[in-house]
Write a structure and sequence with these properties.
By secondary structure, the protein is mostly beta strands. Helices cover about 0% and strands about 60% of the residues. The protein contains no helices and eleven strands. The strands form two sheets. Strands 2, 4, 5, 6, 9, 10 and 11 form a seven-stranded mixed sheet that branches. The N and C termini lie far apart (about 40 Å).
Amino acid sequence: QVQLVESGGGLVQAGGSLRLSCAASGSIFSIDAMGWYRQAPGKQRELVAIITSSSSTYYGDPVKGRFTISTNNAKNTVYLQMSGLKPEDTAVYYCTLVSRGSSSWGQGTQVTVSS
């Protein structure tokens, strides 16, 4: 079983920055991809960013050019550097890990951007 622990969320003013971290532990045999999704109240969960085992990255349209995803493979950790934050970025951010076709999820971390 895989455990994912997110950290780094909080309250920030519009235009500010935050860095989220997600550390994976447990029975990890191989990692196909790690990434972030978010869910705002009353909305569906949406892709924020994904990074694959070959270091390819994919971003949701709303965050392109503002957010950057990276990993520390030695530590099984994924990061999300968020800059130019907007009130519409307010959501619970969930870390995900894909291994052998199966996805694991973290408990989520709240990001609130004030205007």
